[in-house]
Design a protein that fits this description.
Pfam family, one: NiFeSe_Hases
Binding site for Fe cation: 64, 436
Binding site for Mg(2+): 42, 387, 439
CATH topology of the largest domain: Cytochrome-c3 Hydrogenase, chain B
CATH class of the largest domain: Mainly Alpha
Protein name: Ni/Fe hydrogenase subunit alpha
CATH architecture of the largest domain: Orthogonal Bundle
Binding site for Ni(2+): 61, 64, 433
Length: 467
């Protein structure tokens, strides 16, 4: 068997591999996105007090800890029967806006940008360092706007990496007027960066390959009456043609989502109860909503739809959709910080013991719909935990997209540097967070294996590495 290995696939969060099996002519017979890591949080949360979940789960990931923090807090709100007061709700919304600013800026400017700004450069230069050398203003802007996301997380969430201020019933600390003024100045600067960067994002729509990483799926995303929403709203389902086929909130997700596994990966898969594969994340959310709800992002959405239509299956549209969400998050941050209520002191509703034995927190993380489901005993000790993250829900689409591109770019059994990067680009379009979906034991880098059936005279150990 001939095996070519890419180790690692670059510019994603976490570790995985792509396995490509060749037929006798050197073409691709099959390919799979393969994750070989152990997931553990669902088990070791059992036995913890439920109020600890918002403090433990942010440790799942250093890129999107706020998403887990808020999803867990929403679940604890239900268990303690708490209704958030107005300022507490706005602070959580601001915290989520900071999460989207930080995560989407990281992906667009630092992880995805080398694909479309440095696509012809050698692999060793096709990274954020290459961006800094060839487009230093873009690199500086990316760092500045990511800093905004971190500053919001620190000021509102209590810590810049693993926030802790979201607690049952609301928030533990109010935002001071001085902190608000500082954040508002930074948020206005961040919005200027987002507005200028739209020119780059807009250019990605020119001549986009609509069939790249082709896969036909249903879609899932949150909306508040048709407006883009990330922390409160109903989750809508669209079929492969864009027609709404259902919606849910809270524990009703079990009537719509099924988790399953495949033999080639430790990473779970998800499908709808009907058996349909579906996708989540920026592309799904823009398919689901009617509007972004902020003026500049709404104008960008109109341009996006002039190219991709009201509903699209195009995988590469993920990158532009992600930027529109980043743009909107910057606008939301400014609007929330301009609201006098944001420095109010009605930040938490009182809680007094377990009211409901089960709580389900559903939000939109940057990568897609995130579900935290906890069951507790009378004392509030976690007895069961289920976490469904976006990367698991996009796993099928990544797997099929990898095979689609591999069949187009692998010729005569040869995996070139350009071909391997094209395969990686499919995975990067989804911005997978392997750490959220699994937890590693040891060092297991992403790699691409290229295999062909053993034939007489072939070197069974023919292999190579492409970095």
């Amino acid at each position: 068997m001939t095996r070519l290995t890419i180790s690692p696939v670059t510019r994603i969060e976490g570790h995985a591999q792509v396995r490509i099996d060749l037929d006798e002519s050197g073409g691709v017979e099959r390919a799979h996105f393969n994750v070989v890591e152990l997931r553990g949080f669902e088990k070791f949360l059992i036995g913890s007090a439920i109020e600890e979940a918002p403090r433990i789960t942010p440790r799942i990931c250093g890129i999107c800890p706020t998403s887990h923090h808020v999803a867990a807090a929403k679940a604890t709100d239900q268990i303690f029967g708490a209704e958030l007061p107005a300022t507490g709700k706005k602070l959580r919304q601001l915290l989520m806006a900071g999460q989207f600013i930080h995560s989407h800026a990281l992906h667009f400017f630092m992880l995805a940008a080398p694909d479309f700004l440095l696509g012809e450069a050698p692999a060793e230069e096709r990274n954020v360092i290459g961006i800094a050398r060839t487009a230093p203003e873009i690199a500086k802007s990316a760092i500045e706007v990511r800093k905004l996301g971190q500053r919001i997380t620190e000021a509102v969430g209590g810590k810049p990496i693993h926030p802790s201020n979201a607690i049952p019933g609301g928030m533990s600390l109010a935002l001071t007027p001085a902190a608000r003024d500082e954040l508002l100045d930074a948020a206005r600067s961040g919005l200027d960066i987002a507005e200028n960067g739209w020119e780059i994002a807009r250019s990605l729509m020119d001549g986009v390959d609509m069939e790249f990483g082709a896969v036909e799926t249903a879609f899932m995303g949150m909306t508040d009456g048709g407006t883009h929403a990330i922390s409160d709203g109903e989750v809508r389902l669209l079929d492969e043609g864009g027609q709404q086929i259902g919606s849910f909130a809270g524990e009703d997700y079990l009537g719509h989502i099924r988790e399953y596994s495949e033999e080639w990966s430790y990473l779970k898969f998800c499908r709808l109860a009907s058996g349909q594969a579906y996708r989540v994340g920026p592309l799904a959310r823009l398919n689901v909503v009617d509007r972004m709800g902020t003026p500049k992002a709404d104008a960008a959405l109109e341009e996006y739809r002039s190219v991709f239509g009201r509903f699209t299956q195009a995988t590469l549209a993920y990158n532009v959709a992600r930027y529109i969400e980043f743009y909107s998050a910057c606008e939301r941050a400014v609007a929330l910080l301009e609201d006098p209520m944001i420095t109010g002191d009605d930040i938490r509703a009182p809680v007094d013991g377990v009211v409901n034995r089960r709580g389900v927190g559903i939000i939109e993380a940057p990568r897609g719909t995130l579900i935290h489901d906890y069951s507790v005993d009378e004392a509030g000790i976690i007895e069961r935990c289920n976490l469904i993250v976006a990367t698991c829900q996009n796993n099928y689409a990544m797997d099929r997209g990898v095979e689609d591109v591999a069949k187009k770019v692998v010729k005569n059994g040869e995996l070139t540097a350009d071909a391997s990067n094209r395969i990686e680009t499919v995975i990067r379009a989804y911005d997978p967070c392997i750490s959220c979906a699994t937890h590693a034991l040891g060092r297991m880098p992403i790699r691409i294996d290229l295999r062909r059936p053993q034939q007489e005279g072939n070197d069974p150990l023919g292999s190579g590495e492409v970095n």
